[in-house]
Amino acid sequence: MKRAIYPGSFDPVTFGHIDMIERSAKIVDELVVAILNNSAKNPLFSVEERVSMLKETAGHVPNVKITFFDGLLIDYARNIDATIIIRGLRAVTDFEYELQIAQTNRIVNSGIDTIFLTTSLEYAYLSSTIVKEVASYGGDISHFVPKQLIPQIYEKYIR
Ligand code: PNS
Questions:
Q1: 68: Cα separation from own chain's centroid
Q2: Domain 3-124 carries which CATH code?
C-alpha cells in the first residue's frame, strides 16, 4: 500500500490545499494530511481548529486521513509508514526552500521521497498568509477558502 503524507501548517486551509489534497489522493492509496503542531510558528488557529476545518472541507475524499504531528516531519512520516511526502510548488520562489528541505529529509531517511505537484494555475497566488492579511482588514476571502470557514476566520479579528 502506498501511503503518502501531505504536511503543512494549514493556518487556515485554502482552496489551494484542498486542490492539492484531491489531486494527490488520486495518486496514492492513502493520503495522510498532517498538520504541524508548532506553537513557535504562532498559528492563528489551534491545531484542533485546523483539524476540524480540514475535516469539514477535505473529509469528503475517501482515502484521506487528517492528523497532526510535533517534531520532525521525516520522523512522523516513518512512524506512520509513509514512503512519500507531497508538497505543492506555486512558483520558483517556493522551489529553493522546498528543494533544501526535501534534500535534507532524504539525507535523514533515504526510504522516504518527496514528490512535488505544481499547484493548479487558479491557486498559484494563494497562501494562508494572504487569506489572513485580507481577512484582518475585513476584505472578501470567498475566492480563497470554502464559505463555511469564512465566519470562523473573521471571528479571529473581531476585538
Ligand atoms: O504549510 P507550511 O508552513 O509551508 O508547511 C511547512 C512544514 C510543516 C511542512 C515544515 O515546516 C515542516 O515539515 N516542519 C516540521 C519540522 C521539520 O521536519 N522541518 C524540516 C527539516 S529541517
A1: 11
A2: 3.40.50.620
Q: Is 114 helix (H, G, I), strand (E, B) or coil?
A: strand
As a whole number of angstroms, the distance between CA 29 and CA 77 comes to 15
What would you report as the CA-atom Rg of the chain, rounded to the nearest whole angstrom? 15
The residue ranges of every structural domain in the chain are: 3-124
Q: Sheet containing 84-89: which strands, arranged edge to edge?
A: 64-69, 30-36, 3-8, 84-89, 113-118
Cα–Cα distances in angstroms (integers) from residue 152 to residues 26, 40, 155, in the given order: 29, 22, 5
Contact 112/81 with Cβ under 8 angstroms? no
Predicted model pTM? 0.97
Catalytic residue at 50?
no
pLDDT in tens, 63-101: 999 999 999 999 999 999 999 999 999 988 899 999 999
Residue 49 phi, psi (nearest 5): -65, -40
Nearest-CA residue for atom 3 of ligand 1: 9
Known catalytic residue at 128: yes
Read off the pLDDT of residues 87-139 as tens digits, 9 standing for 90 and up. Answer: 999 988 899 999 999 999 999 999 999 999 999 999 999 999 999 999 999 99
Taking the centre of ligand 1 as the mean of its atom positions, its distance from the CA of residue 159, in whole angstroms, is: 31
Contact partners, residue 150, CB within 8 Å, separation at least 6: 141, 142
